[in-house]
């Protein structure tokens, strides 16, 4: 796919940094970029603004047309006056254009200085094969990092995606699915499992209650209601997604949240109860989500992250990968996580704190794996 900014005139580019809403042209650029992502949209900026982050919109423009963009989120570190800057699934630009790379890098450097940031983090949704992007990030002072646990504020490096357009749509995909997957979808239908789409505020509460209930039963953390309410307010209510509930009679069996932006739909969150799992509600939910994504104009269905490039059957989280694989989702690897250190002293202190906090977190994770593995 050709770079989106290849025709731009580098002599006319100018950098713009603002905390103000840049308007619809921002979303138009992000949606049309080959590696555009919901988490670089104005809606996501609004979500994070309600959950402790301050958004900044950094762009390169030419005759008022956006040629490169980076939604930057600042989080303050209490008691220090410093902060870190995150660029979720960004930045977005023509990585092969040295002028654009340099100008955007300078704009990010100035923003970091103005905002007393000690660290800039980025994780562009760029396939790992695009080595020119890796080289450009390194030229800007970024270094690839491998992070886990509570300090991992970025997104998964490996995701599972269904290229719906490659199948000509849901019907073509259905014909290509493994027999067992088709059987489970139809089993749920035969057993009177019904899927309902909702976008009202009450749906958000019901969905979060189910998430919390499932998390409590299975021992994993779940984000608070404030975060999910912000997603409902700025994404779902704005027409960028919905909740799908699988019920049998008056019993809620499972639910998922789907968000859409540009040509992609994301399966963001999901939860189910152990009762009546044999009715296969999660299969019918995903199939319904795929159909609704296609009908909304999306051509890629992103089932989000998996824990490893090479999942192994003996790992407790292998079932997550296996479920997504059963819908013909293909693993896509991105460049990974990058740190640009602005204040080395503060960064070293941060890394020490990270190791101190990670030790008990790692111990808890090993205990969870041991219990679940048994």
Account of the protein in words:
By secondary structure, the chain is an alpha+beta fold. It has 2 domains: 10-156 and 334-373, Gcn5-related N-acetyltransferase (GNAT) (Aminopeptidase); 164-298, Gcn5-related N-acetyltransferase (GNAT) (Aminopeptidase, 3-Layer(aba) Sandwich). It has 11 helices and 14 strands. A 7-stranded mixed sheet has the order 1-2-3-4-5-14-6, with helices on both faces. It has a 7-stranded mixed sheet with strand order 8-9-10-11-12-7-13. A hairpin with a 6-residue loop joins strand 3 and strand 4. The chain is globular, with a radius of gyration of 21 Å.
Essential attributes:
single chain; alpha+beta; Aminopeptidase; 11 helices; 14 strands; 7-stranded mixed sheet; disordered N terminus; 374 residues; 25% strand
